[in-house]
Amino acid sequence: MKTAHPVAAKPGADNSLAAAQKNPASGDVPDILHDSLGYAIQRAKVRTYEMLFAAYGEDTISPARMTALSIIGTQPGTNQSALAEQLRITRASIVKVIDNLEALELVERCSIPGDRRSYSLLLTEKGRQELLSLYEKTRRYEVRIAQDLSPDERALLISLLDRVALSDKPST
Question: Whole-prediction pTM value?
Answer without folding.
Answer: 0.69
